Hints:
Protein name: Tip attachment protein J domain-containing protein
Domain Tip attachment protein J: 529-698
Largest sheet: 8 strands, mixed
Strand order of the largest sheet: 6-5-9-1-38-45-43-44
InterPro entries: Haem_d1_sf, J_dom, Rcc01698_C
Keywords: Membrane, Plasmid, Transmembrane, Transmembrane helix
Shape: elongated
CATH class of the largest domain: Mainly Beta
Structural class: mainly beta
CATH architecture of the largest domain: 7 Propeller
Mean pLDDT: 85
Number of domains: 5
Domain Rcc01698-like C-terminal: 797-890
CATH superfamily of the largest domain: YVTN repeat-like/Quinoprotein amine dehydrogenase
CATH topology of the largest domain: Methylamine Dehydrogenase, Chain H
Number of helices: 9
Radius of gyration: 40 Å
Low-confidence stretches: 1-47, 92-101
Amino acid sequence: MAQMVVSAVGAVVGGVIGFYAGGPSGAVYGAEIGWTLGAVAGSFLIHQHGPQPGDLRVQDSAYGRPIPFVYGMYRVAGNIIWAGQPVADTGGGKGGKSGPGQTKVSMSFAVGLCEGPINGIRRIWANGKLIYDVSNPSNFQAISGSNQMVTNFVVYVGDENQNPDPTMESALGVGNVPPYRGLAYVVFTGLDLSPWGNYLPSLSFEVVQGIAPAYYSASQSTWNYHTDDGTVMVATCLHAGGGEAFGNGYFLGYDGLHVVNLTPDGLVNVGTFHPSPSAALTSAHACGYSDEPGFLGQNGVWYMDDGLCNTNMQSAFVSIGMPTLVSWEDTFNKSGDDIFYTSSYGAGVYHVWRIDMLTGALRATSTISGSMVILGVTASYVYVFLAVGSSGTIYRLNRTTLAVVASWALAPTSGTLVLGHAYNDYRLYVLNGLGHVCLFSTQDGSLTDLGGGPFGNTATTMVTINPNFIVFSRGGVDNIALGYFWLGQADSFTTVGAVVADLCTRAGLTSAQYDVSQLTDNLRGYCVTNHSATRNNLAPLMASYFFDACDVEGLIRFVRRGGASLATVSYSDLGSSTTVGDDQNITPITETITQEIDLPRSLALTYSGMNSDYNPNTQRAFRNVTHSNRDVVMNYPIVMADDEGLMRAQTMLWSAWISRKSFSFTTRIAYLPFEPGDVLTLQGASGQTYTIRIVRCQYDGQGSLIWTAVFEEPDIYPSPSYNVQGGAPAGFSTQQIDYSGPTSLVVLDVPPLRDSDTSAGLYFAACGLAPNWPGCLVDVSRDGSTYAQGFYITTGSVIGYTSNALPTFAGGNQPDELSSVTVVLYSGALSSLSYSDFLAGLNAAYIGGELVYFRNATLIAANTYQLNGFMRGRVGTEAAMSTHAFGDVFLLLDQTKLQQMAINNTDVGSTMYFEPHLLNVFMTQQVTPVKEPVNSARMQPLSPALFKALPGSTASTSDITLSWIRRARVNASWLNGTDVPLDESSESYTLNVINSVGAVVRSITVSGNGSGGSYVYSAANISADGFTSGMVIWFSVQQHSDQGVLGVAAGTSITR
């Protein structure tokens, strides 16, 4: 690509030779001959085709493709220089975009971009869809989504120091991979191809050259939670989208283990659990990493996000002397079935231990000991930092035996290390005692400071998603925060002079042989896309930025148009004879006007749009009144805003028409200081003046200068400081990274909400945490591993969670005006309504299993409402009125947003699993399934009403008479003159007699009477069941359904 331009070099060489042969005139002639001969020779060597905007639009994998070079910013498609073998993964038969059982393919490959060095990559498109964008540091949702979509990739900037890529070496062998120095390229490791149908997409990259990238850090989301006597907050399993955070109070404040999904968009409540052994009276190791959600308690118990726990390791931790106090200095790393543990707590001396989570066995103990921190674990090694004085040593240990394999002593000025993550066996990302993120290379032992982290040195977990993106969490005693550290790239630009100077240097010229001092225009981006002479590479810039090149005394000067007139050529100085000794003047001025039909009627300029993702845009300039029918088209790989493109197209057209008038004249040699490109004022015979631009000066060798000039209007050219930002063109939607946050899916196993819902089924609602949530596809599983495509939810509901428990209500079928609850919404809004609308159920909601109406919704903080004025226990859900807790699900019921799914009768009593996949490019991303134990499925009869136990019967005062009234699930409206119809084909009930310890002592099937049922519990049966005088007898009654599902129980009691 960096070929010498024969014409330009020929000009300089010819000029130098000509000068020695014939002085200044020889230099002029020599340069002219040099340009000509060089251009002819260059055209024989290489086909002279200038760069075009569309040259780099399509990704290729061909040998011998030109290597482009980029100035400023430009979008290039690249050329695949290596591709590994595809790796197929059936993924357990998951559903999702690829369909049930569809194989998911990942692949590693390398894409060559352009000549280096570059500064970085700002954006990546796949098949024209934006998938990576770090151009705006304030748009963190886009940055997080970018690194969820494109996880493992490394950008090699193309300098002369880069080393071979480890991914390529693992496939091709060490020593078999060139470092590709001088070539900027990107290596993707295990890129998931399922979003593109398991085919390699056509990738294009926004390459930045000119401004170095910078690291940014930010604390993005915080979960505040505390108890009266302290709380432990941890988030050990992090990914680009955040991670699950755990909070549990200890000592007097323990109220369960709280779990939330902490994301850049906010938090989603997962649930509150009460594991056994309890997490109370324990703390957690704050500094740790896990490859799955969970944390290590101080009691040696591993707690998981579903309330389950692993107690196998307790004895092993006791044997190694695990500290019994709260220990913020302990570190652990869970990798597969192993937990690696050490400490820097107090003045103790600790080893590194490997404990088997499945058996609880202590498998290995390191020979090194001291105050240590685990920096990371890979498939083969464990990396630890052993503090020594003010610094220390990094050790590489064998993962199985914990034997020392290698070590690197850090410089005394490096300080201590408090946290780390092993990206691979070549790169360790660590946090030092100053709170700075550093890169440690095991290849050369270097420690490079990258910048300050989001939490200083108080972070408790860090995970490197890729070399440009690191996720942090910081757990404390009352909150946990999610933070990020990433490499961003600001806008870049260059100047026309810098580009022209580089092109001349590539042609073999030295800085003393050209002058670009006048070319100060800002240039957003330019790319030389193919093999071409420098003359052709300069042509788009010369035409668009209005400058000329002239050769004077061996120096190529680039002269910008639009300058002021330097002098006036007096009419009396014109007409100098070109013949020695001739005392006759020739015609002073010869004026030539190009005929109109040879001039452009219109000019179309095609360029790369700055605000349209570098897509080719075209601006047209027209001359309204003309006899010409000539239309000129120009295609240049220059990045411009649209209004700048229009301005330059108009200027090109005006310049063509203004310069249609040309002048030829001769002067004496006194005017020799002026050069081609200079602007002069030419005086006519009648005193009129013309502003002209010199295009040629020829010395005739006999004392006269022969000039050629064109008419000029300096005011038409833009100022060098002209800088346009511009907006996106009309009709073009600027691409944004798709929503990548979580989906909150609510599954309602409740009685029928409509009279038409008479078959077995469940209700569903979903929402995201941002307005651009695209909807979701819900996949369904009955075993938790094999999923089938279910249904779509395209409209988000108003969903949230309660931040306090809704109080118990025992007031019956009347408004609850005393209770209130605070609701935090993920999206949407709530509003109050009139009393009549309240009674009509227009504000119906689901809160923790109970269906309610609410009247008042008061906004008390962002997305936070206080609700009061309730009708409780609607549609037979009164049993849930006493079971509320912190974190209950809140859902505003809207029949236009709810979805329903029919299920099998046999699903009742089992657990079903549901995965909500986003309806965008992130559809194939792994999600956490929602588990729902199915109990009602719309088939469970409601609990009978007015269940009473009264002493005596018509036969004996020692009997007990029981009675109840049935309730209907559907068509239950109270109509005058008729009873509510029966839901089932027949009416029957199961009546249970229960003793004081909760044991059922008698179960009876009772037939209904059309409106309920009754039963006489005889004195003989009472005695036979072991009840004596003064004892309390409990009863429950449940209606039968046609599908074999027992209804909700109603209960009552009586004292014998």
